[in-house]
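Let's study my pick:
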Amino acid sequence: MLKHRGFPGRLPGTDFQFTIRRPNKKGVTAITERERYADRKPADRRADSGFVEALWRHFGDQPFERGNLDAGRISWLFGREIIAAEDPFDPESYEAMLVLNEAVARRSFPDAFGAGIFDWDD
């Protein structure tokens, strides 16, 4: 499992996880499309926005390997802001290739492309 060095492990000041430390011994957690409803809590929306910001700052519009990125967090965005970068796509592979759908992500989380919430060393 590829570990994305420099990628934030969680949303600052919260327990919203962005990465995992080690592979799951029981099998790889599958990436699925999760429905996001309009009544989601502001903290959940902020976690999604922070994750999109981290993806954009770390990978830009280039495909990236799933690696140690949290499947649960990806699943909240999968099929919209994050899409498969390969066909066929294996949702249960740490080597699966994904890409940020920039146009959709900018519409859904415009603040993720501004000043942001992380201290990045540019």
Observations:
- The radius of gyration is 14 Å.
